[in-house]
Amino acid sequence: MIVKGFLKDVGGASRVTNARRETYATASPLPDPKDPIRALADALHPGKQEFKVTKITDASPTSKTFRLEPLNGHVPVFQSGQYINFYLEIGTSKLTRAYSLASAPFEARLPQPFVEITIRRNVSYFVPDYFFDQVKEGTVLTAAMPFGNFYYEPLRDSKNIVALAGGSGITPFVSLAKEIAAGKLDVNLTILYGSVNHKDIVCGEQLAEAEKAAASLAAGGGSSASAGSGYGSVRVIHVMSDDPEWDGEKGFVTKELIEKYSAPDSTYMFCGPWPMYNFVTKALKELNVPARRFRHDVMQQPSKATNIPGFPEDQVGKVYKLTVVRGIQEDVVDARADEPVAVALERSAIAIDTHCRGGECGFCRSKLLAGDLFISPLGDGRRAEDKEQDYFHACSAYPMSDCKVKIPIM
Amino acid sequence: MAFYKDHYEVVIIGGALAGLSCALQLQAKGIRDILILEKHNLPGGLATSYVRDGIEIEATLHEMMSIGTKEDRLKVGVFFDEMGVDIDWLRVPEAYRFVETSKGIDITLHSGFETMSKEIDAQYPGWGPKVLEFMNLCNTVYNSMNILSVTPMSKVQMLMKHPEFVKTAGYTATEVMETYHFPQDIVDILSPYWIYVGNPLKTLPFTIYAFLMADYFRGGSYVCKNLSHEMSMKLQQKAEENGAQMEYCQEVDKILVKNGKVTGVRTRRGDEIHCDYVVSGAYPNKVYTQMIEPLSEVPEGAIKSVNARKLSVCPVSVMMVLEGTPEEIGIKDYNIFSGTTMDTEEIWENYQTQGPYDYLTSICLNLANPGCCPEGYTQFSITALPLAEPFLNVKEEDYLSLKRKLASDMIDHYEKVSGIKIRDRIAEIEVSTPMTIAHYVGAWKGSIYGYRHHINDHAVARLQMKEEDHFIDGLEFAGAFSISGNGMGPAVTNGRAAAKAIFEDKEKKEAAVK
Predict the structure, then answer these.
(1) pLDDT-wise least confident of A19-33, A175-189, B145-159, B428-442
(2) Extents of the domains making up chain B
(3) Low-confidence residues of chain A: pLDDT under 50
(4) Do the Cβ atoms of A153 and B429 come within 8 Å?
(5) Are A149 and B52 a contacting pair at CB < 8 A?
(6) Confidence at residue B1, expressed as pLDDT on a 0 to 100 scale
(7) What is the value of pTM for the model shown?
(8) Of these four, A8, A13, B88, B412, which has the most CB atoms within 10 Å of its CB?
(9) Exposed, middle or buried: residue B387 (CB in 10 Å: 0-12, 13-18, 19+)?
(10) In the predicted model, what is the mean pLDDT of chain A?
(11) What is the ipTM of this complex?
């Protein structure tokens, strides 16, 4: 094959090599270390940073809202429904805990940016106790954000959102309601919020304020020019399961209630405890809601292992030896059969980067080298090949024998 | 507490395909004291997947090249077989469907030189034999490339044994194609794969174009049953079985150099690990401007080399799970390349903007891998491959809306070209951008394709200049920025080449001692 002539053709390799040398010769000798794309990626996902607690307020008789301001002045952009993950050292334990952000995304873009979380402590529990008893205004906490996929996605979701919330599961929707009420997000949000008693309502005032502000915005309050256009709405319906004094909706968040308050083709977003999840998913199925119209927040594993379907009852209370491999280091710790591997590690102050604690997100992905684990079928987010090669998510795997595992070095 | 030994023979930065292949190749040659440090908590870099609501979604792999059938294994397939890496490959049904709306071209080609030339002949009668002749030239160059990339020979030998390779080496894809006097429609039909090497045809070396065409049309292409994560995991598994230590969540911050020689690395955690060789999966741009410690050890030539070379494209990808089977949705093709034009210069211009992008590739994974979704769902993605430039000034506050605009435009484009409605079926959607890539794998400016396969940065010239491109003793590179360039197949080859360089260097040094 001849393209231009034999000599020109056979000299091609030398020609292109000379051309390449020429680009080297004429290139700038000055280093250019700037990578704005990585810089933006790092701004969006800065990893661990320090936050100072600047305000603690009551969100109900049993819950508190903690305002956190970043020491470096920057809060990454997040979306309502996403969470922040805390890195804590409590007593001799080293642990991570995730909380939904209850503040609105726009509040993280204010000149003095902040985020808020709301924690309920209706019974004594390790981490809530820490926040209630140890964390004061001025305390500095280490945390990373944002994480999670539980947010309104306009490319996928209906503009009509029905939030189904139970107990402290209201917090992501508080964030969403506030964002809508500030005119930053144009969706119609109806919250069906189940509590036992009106005294248990978490963030009730903030929800009421958001409802009012959204209504006044839509009515053109302040800026009549844009009245009624581009603004969403917020409606909150409280549902009390055990409150004789309550004159609103009573009972559970049933099929009938959902139907009564839903616009056609709504997207349903759920955040609440497991029993309520089972209840509402059944209701939505009966209402023929397509699967793509149902979103749910990550569901933490039930605190009692025996509430996990298939968990072997006879393992309750057993304690096994867990050999933990990190690089060439090996440690042996005790691990209860009825607690996830992640908890055994936390108790032994071996850092493991859990996030969702429901098996889904995979941050605590680890490898089983020997022994048997029970993997919770709830929220099992393992990849197919990971299952074949004995990788597991430490937040949702329970030792059923002495085990040897390899975890990432933190 | 010590997580590492004091010293390793080789530290590999990045447990992606290149790094893992490098480890396997080193082990095959008896070098087994290896530490692999991976930034993420998964192996494979871009060859990965993620799970949304129980459905595992492929992150990047469209079509794995260089595998071949069991009977006609190609280079990467042979290597995996030899290494005992047994991947469950599923064959992609067609090469591509190509739709060019401005000219009304709509054709589907399958692999096999005879087959595809007949398919073209059916629409452009009489041109089949000429297309076949052209594909045979591509194949000859391809075979030579595979030999010459591992077996150095003199110019005279090369001209004797590989005349087609030698004679076409100095020309662009366009220049060689022009000698066949194909009608423009056929040129367009033979062009879609250009984007897999990320450079317009007028400045793309024919060698690279020929490699691509011959490889895909000869061997077909493949995906893994357990998605590309399977490939990454099986490479890691084998490397670990052979004795390598691999640690996740360890980003290497610094490469330590003293008197022109690598002495070790330091991780973000602060671990300082000593070694004889470092194989960097981080871009040379980053290594020479940020990572070498002290930076005074970086020769001026190294800076000039990275400044001389231009980055290729980075992906914007919309990955979806759709409600409905492909049949219910109306999707019939695994892979469609589509646009209003096939003028690669024009597309290149368009790729220097924030869209809407005109030249897209869409993949329906179910049609190669029916088990990739639960019953009643379809895994579907649309990808554009713009340059990094339009994203250099994006503000944090604008990022989410930009991402959604890019995705929305791409969905619109697909719906318009295909006449298939997908928007109301979206059950899951994720959009990846250069920023996503930068976040997960740390690639320089989010570029996954390394440096452009430009005629002025020709793979043949890279090969000739191997010595000149080597700046620090003990430091090798393995990634899309290496000689063979981008793609998962070449990633494996790049990793192996780095291993070979270490092996040869070690032999040379041992010989000098004796």
Answers:
(1) B145-159
(2) 7-69+76-81+226-310+449-513, 109-220, 313-445
(3) 224-227
(4) yes
(5) yes
(6) 80
(7) 0.97
(8) A13
(9) buried
(10) 95
(11) 0.96
